[in-house]
Design brief:
about 240 residues; alpha/beta; 6-stranded mixed beta sheet; 8 helices; about 20% strand
Length: about 240
């Protein structure tokens, strides 16, 4: 929502948030929509430009958390109560079950887990990976940050959250755990990629379509690759 802040006020919030890069994506201003009160520039563009200009400091401040327990929990069965209002989790579980039954989603391959934990100890400031997908054709292991079709979160938040998770996870241990505990044949030279998974035609997709934007420049610098989905007749389709 628009808060009536000036560009300098948003930049001040960015500078403060940069003191703890791992929590940057959680800051309220990352989700502001609308434009700043003085220059009429979108808030998200001001934040994205700031991060482009401070990219090395931002990236250097994101630290790996090595999880002592396995990243693969072994308890996920894709089942949920139909009455649940947690739409993103239900969507994630449906995609997982589809792949467990032998399905595959073109560009992203197979969903091998959902709600993959990142914390080692309770006090760690880390969330869970919405969906983990492996494409054994292109050797890409994707950290998917899923948003339901009517999500009002900004694409900027999706990008930063997914990238933070990519930098938080211990890639080598993640691969080892899913090989050993889940039996997934992941090659060692697999590329780990953060990908917002958002609805085509939704708010995030509309933001992304502005080609000459600082958001797109930031995504390029971070190597973030978006993936878009549609739902028709109850079936989920994935596009690059």
């Amino acid at each position: 929502m628009s808060k009536g802040y000036t560009k300098d006020e948003i930049l001040a919030k960015c500078a403060e948030a940069l003191q703890e890069p791992s929590s940057f994506y959680k800051k309220e201003f990352v989700d502001y929509t609308g434009v700043c009160s003085d220059l009429r520039v979108p808030y998200t563009e001001i934040v994205a430009e700031f991060l482009c200009e401070h990219i090395e400091e931002y990236m250097a401040g994101l630290e790996v958390i090595t999880r002592e327990k396995s990243y693969y929990t072994g308890t996920h069965d894709g089942c949920y109560e139909e009455s649940s209002n947690r739409e993103e989790e239900k969507l994630a579980m449906d995609m997982y079950k589809y792949c467990q039954a032998g399905g595959k989603y073109g560009i992203i391959g197979k969903i091998i887990d959902y709600q993959t934990p990142l914390k080692d100890v309770q006090g760690d400031k880390a969330g869970k990976i919405d969906l983990l997908a492996y494409d054994d054709d292109d050797l890409i292991l994707r950290i998917l940050e899923l948003k339901k079709p009517d999500s009002t979160e900004t694409m900027l938040r999706c990008v930063l959250e997914g990238y933070t998770y990519l930098r938080t996870v211990d890639k080598n241990k993640l691969i080892e755990d899913f090989r050993k505990d889940a039996g997934v044949k992941i090659w060692e030279n697999v590329r780990l990629v953060a990908s917002p998974l958002v609805a085509k035609g939704g708010n995030q997709h509309s933001e992304y379509l502005k080609a000459d934007s600082y958001l797109r420049k930031l995504m390029g610098k971070l190597g973030v690759e978006p993936v878009f989905f549609t739902i028709a007749n109850g079936k989920i389709e994935i596009d690059g």
